[in-house]
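INPUT
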Amino acid sequence: MPTIKHDSSGIIKVGIIGEGKMGSGIFTYLLDFNFELVWLCSQDADTEKINRQFAKRIKRSLEAGIIDRDRFDVLIQSPITRNMDSLYDCDLVIEAIPETVALKRNLFIQLDRIIKPEAIFTSNSSSISPSLIAPPGNRMGQFAGLHFFYPVQLKNIVELTISPSTTACTIDATETFLEKIQRHFITLEEKNSFVLNKILLDVQNEAWLIVRAGQITLAQMDQLVNRHLFPFGIFDICDSVGIDTMLASIRNYIKDYPHKNYFASFISALDDLAAMGKFGVKSNEGFYKYPKEEVRSELPPGSDAIVEHLRQTWISASRRFAAQCHLPLDDMNRAIKEYFGTDTGPFG
Amino acid sequence: MATLTESIKNEVKEIVYSFFAEECEVDIAQINDNTSIIKDLDGDSLMFLELIEIFKKKYNLDIELKVIGKYAVKHPVATIGQLIDMQLLIIEHENRLLDLEH
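OUTPUT
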């Protein structure tokens, strides 16, 4: 295995892979920091258009005085490309392509052949563990999960997921990178990965069980949650993320849970929607129809108890996962507040 | 905290219109306050973030993105007119934007 030393200034050139919401969000966010950037887009991407828009954007930033001429000159050279070879001298790559194990694994195998051996590979996957997609061989030690949240510019939290093979040097360099880009992070072993989404899943599942029991409608539940708990609705967020994406993620999250049946009804509901082609906002229908009509209905008696039940579910899931991950409650609280967009976390 | 003069209001409107015309590659004459950013311009609801950076610099604003994020979740922006109104509120109230909720 090569000896690798990434000190605090070791990461100079960063490659971002994928032109979806996360890839473009990460690329845009990193523009504000002093890295050389390469953005690798898929073969289907309209890189001419992406390049044109990027050039306009940094020109506007120059004119508005947000960046100076030197930074403009560096950024204007940033390759936005479909050519994988452009990544050969990156110190760090962040992959943000669709959530498919085979797709990601094949990509990393190809990248491993092209990119210099000391580079760190990371995946922005929201549900696939690093060990499942890392290329075999030495690069296993330089591989980690780097899970940003949408919208990247607004969500100041990242989950850094490490596998048993990830070296201390890689962890150190990646944590230094996250500090440099001013993102709070929690470092998780991969057996405890995606902990923030898992906490949400517990709350979503309880909310679904209450709706299924007929105590409240979907819309009333979202209205209630939005008013008293989080700045989003439980089922709104499923539609926004995409029913198929949610389904695939949940299946990955619970695959090692001893109590999988607890989630069976919620998964079945998502499965039924997906089977009908109702994938959420992107297909104009999921739990709701889009464009969505905002209907404010009277909340049924017992709503306070429902809110309290969900709040307790949130707190107990947060406490359980914090203990499982050996994370200090303060760190976990901060991460959860950022993720859920609340002023108060489960621990105060 | 800035006082919104007619001149600032006009300037903000002009910058927002020009921004979307350039970014979405449409004729500025096709844009009005009722234009939907997503449906009519094929835009992105996060485009307002770049505009905020421009206004932050231009009016020397003390505003954190986190504050705007929280406000935007509760007051989603769909049209150009709504976006202009939000930008004006940001210029006027800066980091005290969330006080408007109370």
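end of record. The interface with chain A takes residues 19, 22-23, 46, 49-50, 53-54, 57-58, 65-66, 68-70, 73-74 of chain B (CB under 8 Å).
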